[in-house]
Amino acid sequence: MIEKLLQGKTAIVTGAGSGMGKAIAQLFVEQKANVIFADLNIEAAKAASDSFSSENVKAVQVDVSNNEDVAALFQEVEEVFGRLDIVVNCAGVPQVFTEVEDLSIEQWDRIMDVNTKSIFLTTKYAAPIMKKQQSGSIINIASIAGVRARPGLNAYCASKGAAIMLTKALALEFAPYKIRVNAINPGPADTPMINQFLNGDGTLIEEDKKKIFLDSVPLGSLIQAEDIAQASLYLASDLAKIVTGEILNVDGGRGI
Ligand SMILES: NC(=O)c1ccc[n+]([C@@H]2O[C@H](COP(=O)([O-])OP(=O)(O)OC[C@H]3O[C@@H](n4cnc5c(N)ncnc54)[C@H](O)[C@@H]3O)[C@@H](O)[C@H]2O)c1
């Protein structure tokens, strides 16, 4: 792999305590970025970042759906690192398969707030910093569920479909400032989240995982967190300097 692709850059990665966010944040540090590991679960964010030099990383507790938390996060990045080049919106919550008449208002609001409103909030606070710099890369981890629906995933599909369209709208809005905005659609991935789609308590058995998820992927394997990290590295780096508004499926062909 090409090394030091992110030398001199500073990144915020949300959801960096687990799964894809953790893999993205760790790869970015290996590629020489300064990285804020942001997560609601601060212990997980600290554990994900503690093998790196404290000069290059910082773990911050944030609820990405909370305006005050997100505003404080972006103030902190400027104070600690003095600039901001990359934001990866990876924090997300799943939906246990639920028919729409059984879905509570609170469940709907939570899924939309964490998966979609969070992107509005982070870009709202990233915009002034990146516009001043006349550069930046924002990457939204959406989902193949944002373009291919599944029964019982009504709110989740809607939240990711909105994330995809918000990516395109922001790409156009920010293009005059040389700020790029792209999204990645992971297919079913081998992370702690996958078990929660079926029963919410993580007790999904391997047979269910295969029947529901694996069989839907033409390439025949679940997506790994590292697959999403490598796609994020491309979009974050200058290798993708002319790429914006792109929705990259990293899904083993699930979206075909
Ligand atoms: N796992 C899959 O099959 C799959 C498929 C497509 C898309 N995705 C999306 O990829 C992203 C990463 O998922 P993952 O599989 O790595 O999940 P994960 O559950 O392993 O990690 C999600 C992280 O987000 C954090 N988080 C949750 N709510 C938060 C909040 N309000 N504020 C801050 N942090 C919060 C959690 O603490 C956790 O560390 C999510 O947006 C998810 O919707 C996942």
TrEMBL record:
Keywords of this protein's UniProt record, alphabetized?
Oxidoreductase
Q: By its UniProt entry, which InterPro entries does this protein fall under?
A: NAD(P)-bd_dom_sf (IPR036291), Sc_DH/Rdtase_CS (IPR020904), SDR_fam (IPR002347)
State the superkingdom. Answer: Bacteria
Task: Say which family it is in.
Answer: Belongs to the short-chain dehydrogenases/reductases (SDR) family.
Q: What does the record note on quaternary structure?
A: Homotetramer.
Q: What is this protein called?
A: SDR family NAD(P)-dependent oxidoreductase
Q: What organism is this sequence from?
A: Peribacillus butanolivorans
